[in-house]
Specification:
The structure is a homodimer. The first copy, chain A, is α+β, with helices and mostly antiparallel strands. Chain A folds into 2 domains: 147 residues, 3-Layer(aba) Sandwich (Creatine Amidinohydrolase, Chain A, domain 1), CATH 3.40.350; 254 residues, Creatinase/methionine aminopeptidase superfamily (Creatine Amidinohydrolase). Chain A is 33% helix and 21% strand. Chain A is built from 11 helices and 22 strands. In chain A, the strands form 7 sheets. Chain A has a 6-stranded mixed sheet. Chain A has a 4-stranded mixed sheet with strand order 11-12-14-22, with helices on one face. In chain A, strand 2 and strand 3 form a beta hairpin. The longest helix of chain A has 26 residues. The radius of gyration of chain A is 25 Å and the shape is elongated. Chains A and B meet through helix 3, helix 4, helix 5, strand 5 and strand 6 of A and helix 3, helix 5, strand 5, helix 6 and helix 9 of B. Strand 6 of chain A pairs antiparallel with strand 5 of chain B, so a sheet runs across the interface.
Amino acid sequence: MKSDLDQLMAKRGLDALIILGGEMPNPHRAYITNGHEAGALVFKKRGEPAVMITNTLEIENARQSGLPVYNYNDFNIHELWAQYPDDADMRTVRSFERYFERLGITGGRIGVYGFGDIGASWEMLKLLSKHFPAMTFVGEREDTLFDEAVTTKDAAEIELLKDVARRTNLVMQAAWDFIAGHRAQDGVVVRADGTPLTIGDVKRFVRLKLLEHGLEDPEGMIFAQGRDGGFPHSQGNDEEPLYLGRAIVFDLFPRDMQSGYYHDMTRTWSIGFATPEVQKAYDEVMTAFNAVMSQIRVGERTKRYQEIVLDVLEEFGHPTGRSDPGSTVGYVHSLGHGLGLQIHERPGFTHLRDRDVVQVGNVFTVEPGVYYPDRGFGIRVEDTVYIDEQGVVHSLTSMHKELVLPLKG
Amino acid sequence: MKSDLDQLMAKRGLDALIILGGEMPNPHRAYITNGHEAGALVFKKRGEPAVMITNTLEIENARQSGLPVYNYNDFNIHELWAQYPDDADMRTVRSFERYFERLGITGGRIGVYGFGDIGASWEMLKLLSKHFPAMTFVGEREDTLFDEAVTTKDAAEIELLKDVARRTNLVMQAAWDFIAGHRAQDGVVVRADGTPLTIGDVKRFVRLKLLEHGLEDPEGMIFAQGRDGGFPHSQGNDEEPLYLGRAIVFDLFPRDMQSGYYHDMTRTWSIGFATPEVQKAYDEVMTAFNAVMSQIRVGERTKRYQEIVLDVLEEFGHPTGRSDPGSTVGYVHSLGHGLGLQIHERPGFTHLRDRDVVQVGNVFTVEPGVYYPDRGFGIRVEDTVYIDEQGVVHSLTSMHKELVLPLKG
């Protein structure tokens, strides 16, 4: 968790770290600045608080982080523009000389983090490596310092995650109630005036509800019916009416507008009735889901839970990524993922790797599913769970798991 | 524009380019895939169409780009996981061997673009450089290929930008009408029941209207009153009531949910009446604004327009970034910026650099302002303009520029 950063730096032999990136969202920076990124350049020496450097326009935002903040003006960067108007490299080198000097960074291993322009950063890091030979700039491709830090959440983060979970569940229940308030005609859901209710209508309703609850939907929800639901990431066709008796995969993963934390949940609904084929597959997915939920224990390898799902679903005759690598039908993804300020964080739940263990403070999804586009359906059920300080597993996703959504309109 | 990519590659001596990055929004990738990023790895050989590689989950999304699409399964990447379960570097090297071979990329200069994890990309590019000695991986820090390409928009992009502009202006007019429908009591705007209308209420109304018009607000609008408006990037205090006679800077820069293109506009309003001090500063900013708008010509250096504003505002006695470098009051930013799939693109309008010329197909903002937090106000006025094929300047921002917003409620 966040208080482990110095220890995680020590483990990597890092004397300092820098977080690069421009104005785009930057989860490393959001994490270390408590959500107040302010487009800043961030430095942290091991054992000292992180320091932000930003411009006049962003300085008020930056101060809300609680971290020490510098203005670029404090380093007289405008002099460098006058001195080297056509030499971006020299402006960069001289700027970093001033930052390093002020912050007392004189050499050693400097961890490089952040999100931004990859080609520009590649050239800049080559430049800094050349001009600061006492420093080694070190990136991480996997199991990074931030990956490790965010794998466990502290109490303040858990409170934020619980709150976004609560509101997301209210929105999904509201969507259920909204659809249920309609009636059917000729096998499709219709409004009072007899015109079809479309997937686009439902998504618009859900977006309004998200907004009412202070949530945004940056990645775009999935509301995929029938064959579309058989492609795990198909978002669904807005023009399509809602049909009775077709499985709908509704995967909602909004972000809190204030804190930036996510929730992630999926339900599969079949309006009016479910076909025996869908009901059977749904029950099988739920068997896998319940098998996992009943066995989550602190200290267990996460890949064990993927294996439980593979065992259950293969037993029911579904192809999987283990029995049939490269299959596009059956169970074709991993069981879940951590989440926080990013929608996909550690721990991971694939059978292909054995690196994570369930820990106190984990927040992750459990989301088995099966996908058969040619048979006209997909099914997925997903809760987000967390592991409290006593090691007890809690689902943050309170919404019921009824498959059949009856119309009452 | 987009049809110039091969020529822009030739100018840089690039034999191919790759666009790296993960699942986060990646404007280079969005541009080249016509908005269908699908989390893909993108390769483009000079003179050939770009090619996307993605996973089974995203393949349907990727196909909507109109580009050739490969599945990672086509390269048997899962074999590599079995072969090198604990060696990410070897998996990467062997994967890229297969991609390069299939796409016929054998050597030369390979441009590196895209947005993503900077530290991970730094290590990956060092690895690829070592293992593919016939290839030189080249990033660009400034005036990049994509910067140049997006500086001029093609007809299809202009239509998308006009459409998002039209809807954004409807939303801002609706916000004006919403506020105007209220009444005042004791110097604050109140609802029918006498409770104050807050900035948070206005923002909620605006977000609903954006949603109705298919727009999202990923960066968060600015609705900053009084002293807050004196900090150009302060977003405003949601808890604060709207006061009569205080300048409000309302900067709205939403993105179209479908196409991803932005509009960007700012108005300054003073409810009920304006103080003489604010009215005078507003008139001065409008003088600068009109001076620029009347003089925009194809072929002129963009820095000329920043200089026009500096001349006008300095003449009126305002400190500026030229007269008083590092000042935090007066006119403290540059005049504008191009926009498209990113909120800040080329051309730029700073007096500190002379690199851009007004061109046919440019779409950019014109946004002079003055900022005096200690005097309790800031003022900014911003239109987005484009230059048509005949070189005629059009504002895409049709909303009126009245300062005083009268209450009719």
